[in-house]
Design goal:
197 residues, alpha+beta, two-stranded antiparallel ribbon, binds 1-O-phosphono-alpha-D-glucopyranose
């Protein structure tokens, strides 16, 4: 079946939660996947595939992809607290967006920018409450929804490149380029020929 693409614009930069809320009419009253494209994933099976498998085996709810990062990077991200590990999935017990101090972070497991969410999130986002950085945060709306809905975290396999940083962006190009069958060999030879490494 052919897919269909729809676009909407966020007219003002009021935060990620607000950007998602702008898509409420396109999504409608259904569970949906949210993918932040500045986090580039290199995984097989793909991260969203892994998340859908967890969604199905855990009886629905909400699923968030997480990964461990060095403690000094934790303040750049949304962070989750967790219990009841089973394989790589666990129950989320808390969430904090960009914790300023290390003691405010429940763990060093950060939200990787891939979510499966229930449509009730739109009701919470419509309150337009501001959180970290004065922005409307999806993490805060998820934290509110945690009171009434299940959230499962999946520690996904594969690599993530945070293209919000220049080094992350360059690394993503390099890693994915080197892995491409029609590009990798040439890229390797050019790097050698130019003596770049
Ligand atoms: C957003 C989310 C944050 C998440 C991050 C992943 O932050 O708010 O919870 O960890 O994406 O990239 P942003 O990068 O928009 O500041």
């Amino acid at each position: 079946k052919a897919g269909q693409a729809s676009f909407t614009r966020q007219q003002e930069p009021l935060g990620l939660g607000h950007a998602v809320w702008c898509a409420r009419q396109i999504v409608g009253d259904e569970p949906f996947a949210l993918l932040l494209p500045d986090m580039v994933m290199h995984a097989s099976p793909g991260c969203l595939r892994q998340m859908i498998d967890v969604y199905e085996s855990h009886g629905g709810g909400n699923v968030v992809a997480v990964e461990e990062v060095p403690w000094e990077h934790v303040s750049r991200y949304g962070v989750v607290g967790a219990k009841d590990w089973k394989d790589n999935a666990f129950t989320i017990t808390g969430m904090v967006e960009k914790p300023k101090r290390r003691e405010d972070a429940p763990s060093n497991l950060i939200i990787s920018g891939r979510y499966i969410l229930q449509p009730e999130i739109f009701g919470l986002l419509s309150r337009h409450e501001k959180g970290a950085g004065g922005e409307i945060q999806i993490t805060d709306a998820m934290l509110k929804m945690l009171a009434s809905q299940k959230f499962t975290a999946l520690r996904h396999s594969g690599r993530t490149f945070d293209c919000g940083s220049p080094v992350g962006f360059m690394l993503a190009n390099l890693a994915l380029g080197l892995a491409k069958p029609d590009l990798g060999q040439d890229l390797r030879s050019e790097i050698k020929r130019l003596g770049l490494l």
